[in-house]
Amino acid sequence: NHKCKVLIVGGGGGGTAVGAKLCFKYGAGSVMFLEPSDRHYYQPMFTLIGGGMKKLENSYKSMKSVLPSKAEWKKDRAVAFDPKSNRVETEKGDIIEYDYMVVSTGIELNYHKIPGLVDALENPNSQVVSNYSPKYVTNVFKAFEKFNGGNAIFTFPASPVKCPGAPQKICYIFEHYLRKNHKRNDAKVYYNTALPVIFGVKHYADSLWLVVKNRDINVNLSTNLIEVNSEAKKATFENIVTKERTTTDFGLLHAVPPMSTPSALREHSGDLVNELGFVEVHKHTMQSVRYPNVFAIGDCANSPNSKTAAAVAGQCHVVYRNLVDVMEGKKPSKSYDGYASCPLVTGYNTCILAEFDYNLQPLETFPFDQSKERLSMLIAKKDFMAPLYWYGLANGLWNGPGFIRKALNIFR
Ligand code: FAD
Ligand code: UQ1
């Protein structure tokens, strides 16, 4: 058995940011990470890798080099939570007892939930690809190059996802790839989304409808991928509203899997989570609604923000401060406004930098209309966000662009 003051379950973007802050304040001996992975991926780069703009090797560092050096790292996975007795059980059979806990497991990719999809992704000739997993992302650009006409279909699943813009970004990049390589005439491009909207924030949805209209991209709403037949190169979709099924052949299929929190949370954590398996927190304080010594950050929390690294940046200072408050016997004092950002890459030279809050109102950093496609925002996404993540967020030094927004407000 192990004991620790603060246990952080999951050393991804959120866990690492909060852990770095805690280690800075309390020093060695205060924080334990429970994290099974050897590698820490900067997942926002996957979109650019899929489009051939970056390499997989640029997207990760060793977990050891990313986790704060003053923290203890147990390289193991949580399999069950017992928040009533402040304990977590691990895959190797250990029990960890904590005084305070931050849950930051992120969400998992459930490719197996779509019949035929895993077989298709494992087959390098299937033209079925997916940029969500480091295991499959390097095949995406190869499939672009091999594409020789027909239907190119990009999907969005019937579940919450991380970076809800990513399923359509890769569609725009592909469409531009075709035009650059004089192959656009041979293709019909489809974005089939299970959602009833193209994007949840109207300010940006309006721009995206113009993009798809101008570029002859067919958008099918409420359309969910339910089966893949890689032999016949056919995909089956179900209309979420009418339940009507259609089967379409494809020359390329980019599939985004349904996602969920890990089974440890969904099935073995009692009332720590809501009915969907997300850690139930107060949406402004990120404190568990039932266990005051527990906080959640990032994709595994049920706070109704868009699940992005940018949201994690907006949450990490709030989680850290409120946890310190609780440790000092006070009430949580900081409030998260739901900030999230999604750099909607629309091609090799353009990006719409969406930024918004819980009310789905734009909360833009720069003093120009960010709903317009811009080269400057593509450069920001391509060359500035990864350093911001590695040197800022992962070291506990980046709390999101709120202060820049306030400073630039003098130009509005
Ligand atoms: P993660 O960073 O995923 O970390 C979770 C960690 O928990 C992992 O290290 C995992 O190994 C560990 N873990 C899992 N299960 C357990 C367990 N049972 N016990 C212990 N540890 C466990 N965000 C943006 O802001 N901008 C973007 O442009 C953007 N683009 C994206 C594009 C793609 C293709 C993808 C996949 C994501 C993108 N994101 C983007 C989203 C961003 O990567 C996530 O929102 C962010 O990483 C969430 O941080 P997290 O700490 O909650 O989870
Ligand atoms: C951000 O803070 C962040 O986390 C480090 C991202 O993830 C990679 C982002 O994509 C974005 C857009 C932000 C927000 C930052 C600015 C400067 C708008």
What does this structure look like?
Helices cover 28% and strands 24% of the residues. It is α/β, with parallel strands linked by helices and 412 residues long. The chain folds into 2 domains: 2-107 and 261-339, FAD/NAD(P)-binding domain (3-Layer(bba) Sandwich), CATH 3.50.50.60; 112-259, FAD/NAD(P)-binding domain, CATH 3.50.50.60. The model has no long low-confidence stretch (mean pLDDT 98). It binds flavin-adenine dinucleotide (FAD) and ubiquinone-1. Flavin-adenine dinucleotide (FAD) is lined by residues 9-15, 34-37, 43-44, 46-47, 77-78, 104-106, 131-132, 162-163, 166, 262, 264, 298-300, 307-310, 312, 341, 343. Ubiquinone-1 binds next to α9, β20 and α10.
In short:
It comes from Chironomus riparius. This protein is of the alpha/beta class.
Secondary structure topology:
Elements: E1 2-9, H1 13-26, E2 31-34, E3 39-41, H2 46-50, E4 60-62, H3 63-66, E5 72-74, E6 78-82, E7 87-90, E8 95-103, E9 108-109, H4 117-122, E10 128-129, H5 138-146, E11 150-156, H6 166-180, E12 187-193, H7 202-214, E13 217-220, E14 223-229, E15 234-239, E16 245-249, E17 252-254, E18 259-260, H8 263-267, E19 294-296, H9 309-327, E20 340-345, E21 351-356, H10 375-392, H11 402-408
Parallel strand pairs: 1-2, 1-8, 2-5, 8-19, 10-17, 11-12, 11-17, 12-13
Antiparallel strand pairs: 3-4, 6-7, 7-8, 9-18, 14-15, 15-16, 20-21
Helix pairs in contact: 1-9
Bound molecules: flavin-adenine dinucleotide and ubiquinone-1.
Flavin-adenine dinucleotide binds at residues 9-15, 34-37, 43-44, 46-47, 77-78, 104-106, 131-132, 162-163, 166, 262, 264, 298-300, 307-310, 312, 341, 343.
Catalytic activity: ubiquinone-10 + hydrogen sulfide + sulfite + 2 H(+) = ubiquinol-10 + thiosulfate; ubiquinone-10 + hydrogen sulfide + glutathione + H(+) = S-sulfanylglutathione + ubiquinol-10; a quinone + hydrogen sulfide + glutathione + H(+) = S-sulfanylglutathione + a quinol
Cofactor: FAD
GO molecular function: FAD binding; glutathione-dependent sulfide quinone oxidoreductase activity; quinone binding; sulfide:quinone oxidoreductase activity
